[in-house]
Amino acid sequence: MSIFRLACGSIPRPSPTALPIFSSSIRRSQRHISTSQRRSLNMEEYPTERIRNFSVVAHIDHGKSTLSDRLLELTGTIKAGQNQQVLDKLEVERERGITVKANSSSMIYDYKGDKFLLNLIDTPGHVDFSYEVSRSLGACDGALLLVDATQGIQAQTLSVYELASQRNLTIIPVINKIDLPAAEPDAVIEQVVMQFDLDLDSALPISAKSGLNVEQVLEAIVEKIPPPPASEVSPRQQPLKALLFDSYFDKFRGAVSLIKIESGMVQKGDVIVSHHSKSKYTVTEVGVLNPDEKPTTHLQHGQVGYLVCGMKESGEAHIGDTIYKQSQPVDALPGFQPVKPMVFAGVFPVDNKDFLRLEENVKRLTLNDPSVTVHRESSNALGQGCRVGFLGQLHLDVFRQRLEDEHDSEVIITAPTVPYKVVQGGKERVVRVPSEFPEPAELSNRKASLFEPYVNAEIIVPDEYVGSVIELLSAHRGEQVAFSYLENSNPPRVHLKYHIPLAEIVTDFYAKLKSATSGYASFEYQQADYVASDLVKVNMLIHHRPVDALAMIVHRSKSMDVAKHWVKKLKDVIPKQQFEVAIQAAIGQKPIARETIKAMRMNVTEGLYGGHFDRKLKKLNQQKRGKAKLKMKAVGNIHLPQSAFYDLMKS
Ligand SMILES: Nc1nc2c(ncn2[C@@H]2O[C@H](COP(=O)(O)OP(=O)(O)OP(=O)(O)O)[C@@H](O)[C@H]2O)c(=O)[nH]1
After folding, report:
1. What is the pLDDT of residue 80?
2. What was the pLDDT predicted at 627?
């Protein structure tokens, strides 16, 4: 089951249209320090029983990155008092204070006289990035389930718990932010323990910010999370089997893979094979992230670290791949579910000359993100561009921001569309661009049937807002599946389950939910099924000519609202002409909404003073006749500048 989620923070936070993602190439390449500057760590000192691989999972903003910082400080991995989210290295992550890319760091913890190697894998909180959470958990034996003591369980707490328990991970509930006056640690502990059927004594109330009780978290990691399963045979005698769970790109060394060794060992000079591509590589370096790269003598059974082997393209480091030694072939590990993009948008340069640069920038940003797809697309109105597929709206917004932040490119991103299915002549095809949508004639003859993707959504909301949330969901064509109260919640909170079209939640749903609940709702979704649907394509016509880049596929019940909204928006950005301009929205040939931009009226009587009434009248009549001529001449001559598209899509 592929997982697609979108979360709505329960604390009001910056607009979701400005959040970040993708490749960690920039961040991680900064980690590379020349080998001579680094001392190798002897991994023989860390047999499996002294290793703990764990993750921190939580709803957004519940404090994962802050807790990670404290753990790194307490173990002396980073200097205390830096008070910055060490694992959030992307500019956008720092700026927005959110994690968008899973990250990891190893730390050495002295516990009762023994040294333990703790491998922490930080995960992003936003649900669009939950594939990152899922694959990070694949490298772990346990997870800290972090819950904000002022907010209690949120929609994503439920989903990350689900992901962790599916993988049979040991879960330690950690109740954070107990320093806040609004914190209710006892109630939240009870809520978490009851909801997930956990041991009451296992819950740890902490403040990641002040460090209160964080030492206990380290102790619990060692005591409660099991070490990776031990093997009877020494790692040197076992065949190497390593799971590639993440990668980043370094411009000097190529793709650097993050691996978990399931069996055997790997060291510099080994010839390894990718199970996925069967390509062979010679290992040039192995090590751990501490949090910067620290080379090690080798990596062995149970350990998590990085591996450099001359992979020139980031795509060669295939996430979920199994790595083995050339001399000892092994069966592949289960790997990961491939994630499919569910939101598609056209990305075009504001200036057509910039296309190649834009394409290169888009590709660079998506290098390390296997969930993104990029294909060339051309539009009559916008010229050459790319059609990019994302996991969700947030994923798209993050991409846009990173493109603008890191590559200094202004881009036009067309209205997002979801993948619809068309069954025609017994054949099924997926439509990701409105231009591929069947013509109304084909639909009216019942030669084609249409299906749209639905999701299973979960919302947790204080009961005072439940009425407005239900209203919002039904306005977005959602159907209620379940309604229940969360236990031990004060104020009472409702847990809603809905079946809702994906298209309804990829536009402004998130913002509406936040405003309807003052930010107190949490929301997430999983891809569900395809349902037969009465869909239409709405074409936008400017001065009777269709503008392909503005066409949209919508449910028939929404077509009128969408049409009115877009003709109005267009009216606001198209400059006045010397003739009247019709802006229409149409289904097939049939217009369903119209706005008119009145002609620019020049004052032709300027300079005629006093009683020249006849001359004024003559001038005005001349102007009228001139306009009629102009109107005819100018049919089809409206040129909508790219900058107008930019304003249109931004507004
Ligand atoms: N008062 C208080 N604030 C905290 C505590 N832990 C985290 N915070 C604050 O909560 C906010 C969110 O913390 P993060 O560590 O960025 O949360 P996160 O879960 O990593 O967020 P995402 O990466 O966006 O999912 C920040 O403003 C932190 O300073 C705590 O124990 N007490």
Report:
1. 73
2. 53
